[in-house]
Specification:
This protein has one domain: Up-down Bundle (Methane Monooxygenase Hydroxylase, Chain G, domain 1), CATH 1.20.58.220. The chain has six helices and no strands. The model has no long low-confidence stretch (mean pLDDT about 95). By secondary structure, the protein is an all-alpha fold. Helix 5 packs antiparallel against helix 6. The chain is elongated, with a radius of gyration of 19 Å.
Length: about 220
């Protein structure tokens, strides 16, 4: 009985890794679409959100099956409960990748008002946070989960830098205002992705220790 349960838990890990890979790819596509102003890539990122939603439902169904059929002990119950919480944040990250691409479609015909440097850095940092948080869950690695939580400070710092740059561009030329607001929204979505990745890491810590990590 336990062997079967362990196989199902491994299946849960595999699905989480698969969902994480899908989201990481969506972030990458959305970022490339923004930087290159490629509307076809932006549309791909938007369509990917549907597949991510379907994967969330698949994982949720497996978690509920494990809870109802296997009567897990306390440690396993924490693990499954954490997975249910994690996929909610993971689904929201997929939503934000689509949100970014929708803004990209709106501004694709206008040249960028500045070279995009910090936004791709935010994208890379948040994608790494997502991957590391899922790795921490699968490997039950508390130190890696804590490293993800600490990495959110880097994302917040990049957001502050972008905000300052855009405010200065608006001050120099009010005509930059429209796109500056759009780029600010994109940066805000990446900041939220970092927050969701942090939430995932906190649930990983809960699955290991039985308590959420302090902010």
């Amino acid at each position: 009985m336990r062997n079967r349960f362990d196989r199902q838990l491994q299946g849960l890990n595999d699905l989480l890794i698969e969902m994480g890979s899908m989201i990481e790819e969506a972030i990458g596509i959305a970022t490339r679409a923004l930087v290159t102003q490629d509307t076809r890539l932006a549309e791909r990122a938007i369509l990917a959100d549907r597949e991510i939603d379907e994967k969330e439902r698949e994982i949720e169904s497996l978690c509920l099956k494990l809870l109802l059929q296997q009567q897990p002990v306390a440690k396993d119950l924490r693990l499954i409960s954490a997975a249910l919480k994690m996929i909610t944040d993971m689904e929201r990250i997929g939503d934000h990748a689509a949100d970014i691409s929708e803004i990209t479609l709106l501004i694709a015909n206008d040249p960028h008002i500045k070279e995009l440097v910090h936004i791709p850095q935010m994208a890379e940092a948040t994608a790494r946070m997502l991957t590391d948080s899922i790795d921490a869950f699968v490997k039950k690695d508390l130190s890696l989960a804590r490293a993800v939580i600490e990495a959110d400070d880097v994302v917040d710092g990049l957001f502050d830098a972008i905000k300052e740059d855009l405010i200065e561009l608006i001050r120099l030329d009010g005509a930059n205002g429209g796109q500056a607001i759009d780029l600010m929204m994109i940066a805000k979505y990446f900041e939220r992705i970092g927050d969701h990745a942090t939430n995932i890491a906190e649930w990983v810590a809960f699955s290991i220790t039985g308590r959420k990590e302090p902010q």
